[in-house]
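Agenda item 2: iron/sulfur cluster complex prediction
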Amino acid sequence: MKKLLLILVLASLAMAALAVFTEDMEYLGYTGVLKERGGHWWLHESYGDSLRLLLAPQAKLDSLEYVMAAGDTVSVEGFREKELFLVGKMWNLSREASMLWLRWLDYGNLSANSLSSYNVDASKCIGCRLCVAPCPMGAITMVKGKAVIDLEKCVECGICIEGYGKFKGCPVRAIAPK
Ligand code: SF4
Ligand code: SF4
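Presented output:
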């Protein structure tokens, strides 16, 4: 009887772990219309869902010369966490031949695809902690009073530099891609 109970407990633990894994790694796709709000791109689906698109920092998009405009219909694939959508691939259906591949996320790999790596200049960091909570990947921790970015977790969304919502980015510009 004890053995059966143990097997049942282990089976339910395994199922719970699998559920968490699957939820964390779910790769999704959406299609909708682009809007710009608060200086950021949002995707509005026809049935009312709004997703803030986590793209590469603007400088990277500029370097790719990727054209986007409010009102364009786009399809995105990537990883969703509440209203934040980390874009892996993006097609602009309003323009010709404009598939943008930002990150390799198809298999749940949330680590960066080596576009660049983000770094905190410890000599500039004043330890204000403002960047810690807004990081959608929990990649920033404080070590000896200075912010440190875990590059295994960082997905190069640029929020720590460019800001999100009330957070306007590192106030002393201590974070930069290298
Ligand atoms: S926001 Fe800038 S100054 Fe503040 S902890 Fe983060 S890196 Fe340091
Ligand atoms: S460290 Fe900065 S760029 Fe990396 S995931 Fe966090 S907020 Fe985005």
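Discussion summary: Residues 120, 125-131, 147, 170, 172, 174-175 surround iron/sulfur cluster (ligand 1) (CB under 6 Å).
Owner for follow-up: CH.
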